[in-house]
Amino acid sequence: MNGLEQLRQLNEDQEKAKGSAMVVRKLRDDLYYELKAAWSKFITVCRFVFKDNEEYLRILNVPPIRSRTRKSTTDQAQGDQADQTPTDTSNQ
After folding, report:
1. Cα angle at 62 between 58 and 67, to 5 degrees?
2. Do the beta carbons of residue 66 and residue 59 sit within 8 Å?
3. How far apart are CA 46 and CA 83, in angstroms?
4. How many CB atoms lie within 10 A of CB 92?
5. Model confidence pTM above 0.70
6. What angle do CA 67, 69, 72 make, to 5 degrees?
7. What is the DSSP string of 21-50?
8. Over the stretch 20-30, which tens digit does the pLDDT of each residue have?
9. Residue 25 contacts residue 33 (beta carbons within 8 Å)
10. Domain residues of the chain, as ranges?
11. What is the pLDDT of residues 29-62, one digit of tens each?
12. How far is residue 63's CA from residue 65's CA, in Å, rounded to a whole number?
């Protein structure tokens, strides 16, 4: 084999390796999305089954459901201050 034939052979081997890598990458991505969907379903089931027992959720490392309508800490602080405002009782 001369240098040119070796170069062609190396190029052909490299193209085969690229094709194999693409196939493996696609398989990996498909399995990842399948696992992600299964994990999401698992989390949902755990939250439903153990909704009254947060200790089990912590043991399973399942994050609690966060409220979407939760006030920010500044809103809460302002609300707390408003609750502590003394009322005027001088007219009584």
Report:
1. 100
2. no
3. 37
4. 5
5. no
6. 95
7. HHHHHHHHHHHHHHHHHHHHHHHHHHHHHT
8. 999 999 999 99
9. no
10. 3-65
11. 999 999 999 999 999 999 999 989 889 999 999 9
12. 7
